[in-house]
Each structure stands twice: as C-alpha cells, then as structure tokens.
Write a structure and sequence with these properties.
Blueprint: H1 9-23, H2 30-37, H3 41-53, E1 57-60, E2 66-69, H4 78-86, H5 111-124
Antiparallel strand pairs: 1-2
Helix pairs in contact: 1-3, 1-4, 2-3, 4-5
Amino acid sequence: MSKVFTLSEAASIAIHSMVLIAKSEGMMNVNKIAERTGSSKHHVAKVLQRLVKEDYLTSIRGPHGGFELNKDPENINLLEVYETIEGQLVVTECPMENPICPFDKCILGNVVADMTVKFREYLKSHSLKEYL
C-alpha cells in the first residue's frame, strides 16, 4: 500500500512520548512509554535521550526514575520536537531534488512544497499543552 505522507518512527515516538510525559503525574519511564506507543523500548530510550540532550526533558536513572518535561508544555510546539529528531523541515521546489528539470513546468506542480508548508505550519501552531 502506498502513502503520500509518512512520519518516521523516531519522530512519531518523540511527539507521542512528549505528550505522554506532559500528561503524566511525575516521572514516566521508558517501559511505560514503549508499551503505550507500541514501540521498542530501546528505540524509545534512544529518542528520549536525544530530547534530554536538547534540554526538552530531564531524566533520572533508577527504579523510580524516568523522564519529565524541562519546559512548560505551552512553550513546546510539535515542530520543535519533530525537528529535534529529524532536522530542519525544509521546503523544496522539486520533490526529486533535481537541479535541472527536464520539463518547462513541474509535472507535480507545487503540491509537495504546499504539503510541506502546511505540515510545518500545523506542527508549529500546536503545543503540547493542547493535548493535556
């Protein structure tokens, strides 16, 4: 089955984990997050460590440890979380990133650029607070 849009597993884990952590009372550990998201606990741990490194989360090791937000949920938008994992979301004119187009006019028009702009705006306009 073909899809026009797919979100990487890492970006999905990051966004969903941040909402779960924001909603939790106190610390939330990797096992709970992996269970709730249906993801590998090793992949969750790797993604969350990236968010710790970028100062979105604080982590505490041990049996009573876990992760908690380092910032107010109102001040974290989904675009920040996405770009922390995937890098800057860039709008490109050519979906194939060809420097020279064999046609006078792109066969796909601006649909890819338009979708990217719309996706970027959506992520930027939604904070974690909206999902609490």
